[in-house]
Amino acid sequence: MLENIRLSFQGIWSHKLRSFLTMLGIIIGIAAIIAIVSTIKGTSEQIKDNLVGSGDNLVEINMYETDWVYVSGESAPPSGVPMIDDTIKNEILDLNSVEGVSAYRYGYTYDGINYKSNKMEGADLLGVDDDYFNVAGYRLCKGRLFIEKDFDDRSKYVIIDNTTAKSLFGEDDPISKSMEIKGDVYVVIGVVEKTNDFKPVVENISEWYTYYYDDAAGKIFVPHTVWEYIFSFDEPYNVIVKAISTEDMTDAGKDTEELLNSYITYMDQEGNMPYKYKSEDLLQLAKSMMDLSESTSKQLIWIAGISLIVGGIGVMNIMLVSVTERTSEIGLKKALGARKRTILAQFLTEAAVLTSLGGLLGVGAGVGLAYLISDIAEVPVAISGVAIIISVAFSMVIGVLFGFIPSVKAANLNPIDALRHE
After folding, report:
1. What are 131-162's pLDDT values in tens digits?
2. DSSP secondary structure letters along 38-107
3. Which of 157, 163, 194, 200 is nearest to 176 (CA)?
4. What pTM does this model have?
5. What is the mean pLDDT of residues 56-83?
6. Are strands 218-223 and 123-128 parallel, antiparallel or unpaired?
7. How many whole angstroms separate alpha carbon 147 and alpha carbon 140?
8. Using alpha carbons only, what angle is made at residue 127 by residues 122 and 130, rounded to the nearest 5 degrees?
9. Which region holds residue 7: left if phi is over 0, alpha if psi is between -120 and 50, else beta?
10. Could you give phi then psi for residue 385, rounded to 5 degrees?
């Protein structure tokens, strides 16, 4: 085998230009496949990162009223929708896919947030429990977080994020400052920020609304026990769960959704349940978009595969030429006792080496092409090691398949006729 490989390299080197032109179809085909797979994989990873984030594994389960997220209002909430207590939270924690859970109330106000003469145009108000900041991935920048006494005493304390701190307090230190929320005075005890500094890639205004709009508004956190001071009612909670892994996010969301909905007893006059908990299945959305991306990738790979067939035909053609040129050599080997399988193995090895070299060159060209496309089109790229290995192996298979007929022809030559060939 080693001798056959040595002879193959010797033959390729003896006809460098011809061998390169023969390999060109293989090189182009492999390069196209590597570039396509790398670009599609990079795009898929970007889709997943943009939607799911960089590994915080959080799933929101929101209360919906028909098709819209329930938002705190001025009317009393319906009966038959449970207030999520520690018992329900412990049931959620018992789910196999859940690592952490927090219940919170959500509302949005367009005005009524003041500090001295400064006013905020709008802010997200969240009534949180003592687990929220840990589960949701916030870290304390200054001050302190809520303690059990704050919840028990219904203390009018607030914790704000950096956006609110900059917008409302400017250069002032907000800690221990008093601010107004809908005419009532609250004292700032802490400032928090997200521990996860992941920023999705945004290329247009639509994507900005998708990924950043929720973070653009400042967030103000109060103990959930003082919620009725702001909105006059103890309203239903939303839930945020931390899945054990990214792959468990769908199960964590669905299982929590089903558990919470099992506690809802409210029905309208027509017997429908307008209030339901629904999970925000970003992982499934990401998978759907990635599946579409991969489907497109497969179609493009089949198209690129046509050049591999063309390259294989070129290999067959040049091997037939090689057999004709070396007829006398084949006859001499057979006269000296070489068997058919020896001749067959020699020519199959030469074809496989030729296409394998083409595959390796194609991989290099494909990686370079992928990064070139990434720079020009400003799209992400992720080189696939599996695709590289498969491409080189596939190029070798092409050499064996398309080199088989010329090899059989060489092996079946009559030694006497071969020796007479000029």
Report:
1. 999 998 899 999 999 999 999 999 999 999 99
2. HHHHHHHHHHHHHHH-SS--EEEEEEEETTEE----SSPPPTT-----HHHHHHHHTSTTEEEEEEEEEE
3. 157
4. 0.58
5. 76
6. parallel
7. 14
8. 140
9. alpha
10. -65, -35
Burial class (CB in 10 A: 0-12, 13-18, 19+), 58: buried
Helices (H), 153-281: 162-164, 205-211, 213-216, 227-231, 249-261
Provide the 10 A C-beta neighbour count for residue 173: 12
Per the rule left: phi > 0, alpha: psi between -120 and 50, beta: everything else, 84 is beta
Length of the chain: 422
Per the CB < 8 A criterion, the answer to whether 81 and 262 are in contact is no
Rounded Cα gap, residues 319 and 323, in angstroms: 6
Q: What is the pLDDT of residue 362?
A: 87
CA 288: distance to chain centroid? 11
How many whole angstroms separate alpha carbon 212 and alpha carbon 6?
Answer: 60
Rg (CA), the chain: 34
Counting Cα atoms < 13 Å in the Cβ hemisphere of 248 gives: 18
> Rounded to an integer, what distance in angstroms lies between the CA atom of residue 382 and that of residue 370?
9
Residue 112 CA to its chain's centroid (Å) = 40
Cβ partners under 8 Å of residue 348, min gap 6:
399, 400, 403, 404, 407
Distance CA 246, CA 2 (A): 48
311 half-sphere exposure, CB direction, 13 A CA radius: 33
pLDDT in tens, 156-187: 999 999 989 998 998 899 999 999 998 899 99
Asked if pLDDT for residue 402 goes beyond 90, the answer is no
Query: How much is the pLDDT for 339?
Result: 75
Q: Tokens 């599996």 identify what position? A: 386
Sign of the CA dihedral 414, 415, 416, 420? positive
Give me the DSSP letters along 135-162: HHTEEEEEE----HHHHHTT--EEEEEH
Tokens matching residue 132: 């929220």
Q: Is the pLDDT of residue 283 over 70?
A: no
> CA–CA distance from 183 to each of 112, 176, 309, 329 (Å)?
7, 18, 76, 101
**Token representation of residue 275:** 């209030």
